[in-house]
Amino acid sequence: MKTCAIIPLKKLLYSKSRLSAILNEKQRKELTLCMLKDVINACLNSKRLNSIFIVSQDDIKFSDFGDEIKIIVDSGELNEAIKNAILRLREYDIKIIIPCDIPLLEGYDIDFIIENAIKYDIILSPSCDSGTNLLCIKGVNDFKLEFGEGKKSFISHLKNAIESKLNVKVISNERIALDIDDDTRLLYLSMLDADKYSIKYLKGALYEGNQNHSN
After folding, report:
1. If you average pLDDT over residues 193-208, what whole number do you get?
2. Do residues 54 and 37 make contact, with C-beta atoms less than 8 angstroms apart?
3. pTM of the model
4. Do 159 and 166 meet the contact criterion of CB atoms below 8 Å apart?
5. How much is the average pLDDT of 195-207?
6. Beta-bridge partners for 69
7. 47 is in which domain, residue-wise?
């Protein structure tokens, strides 16, 4: 079966506004790109993914990973843009929607999801605040999407799957669950010792911020 990852990327200008008490606009943009690199690395390390697509509201150039990453520019609303990508990528039997702000994701997490997708139409993995941090769709192109900042999308996605009589499985995973949407999770990420672009960037940014504050 052909598999692909779909990674939505909202406008970088407005990225991670809820972190503005700790990071300035430039730092939030750079952190978002670092987390995106971490997610892309996880996808590249997967043994079961065939293709990786970024659905971006910006016409970005992403040359760090060569031709392995394909950009789909769509300035529409988040759910509509993802739906358009799902319809466009009909040739892929399994599509995994992965947010760009789960930097602890690993390739073997994705492989585990794909292995389970053989038996299920929908696989959901929740965030720590009841959002949906991974949605795997097999053979379904009209699944109702409920993504959005502040929305408890996990319950909505689960309800939609059950009402549509789809075979659904929930997989909880602490690496997938950690999205960086508030100051507490940001500081937690910065204290981890892991080979991640985002962690290295945060350690430098927060150190620089503390130095400036002390001066």
Report:
1. 89
2. no
3. 0.93
4. no
5. 91
6. 52
7. 3-214
Structural domains in the chain (count): 1
Report which residue type is found at 31: L
Residue among 111, 77, 79, 78 nearest 96 (CA): 111
Average pLDDT, integer, range 171-195: 95
Q: CA 105, CA 111: separation in Å to the nearest integer?
A: 11
**Which 3 state secondary structure label does DSSP give 7?**
strand
Taking the C-alpha atoms of residue 147 and residue 79, their distance in angstroms, rounded to an integer, is 6
The reported pLDDT for the residue numbered 205 is: 85
Express the helix, strand and coil content of the chain in percent, nearest 5 each. Answer: 45, 15, 40
Distance in angstroms (rounded) separating the CA atoms of residues 40 and 182: 22
Q: For position 49, which CATH number holds?
A: 3.90.550.10
**Based on the number of CB atoms within 10 Å of its own CB, is 71 exposed (0-12), middle (13-18) or buried (19 or more)?**
middle
Task: Centre a 10 Å sphere on the Cβ of residue 21 and count the other Cβ atoms it contains.
Answer: 8
How far is residue 186's CA from residue 168's CA, in Å, rounded to a whole number? Answer: 31
Amino acid type, 142: D
**Facing residues of 56 across strands?**
9, 73
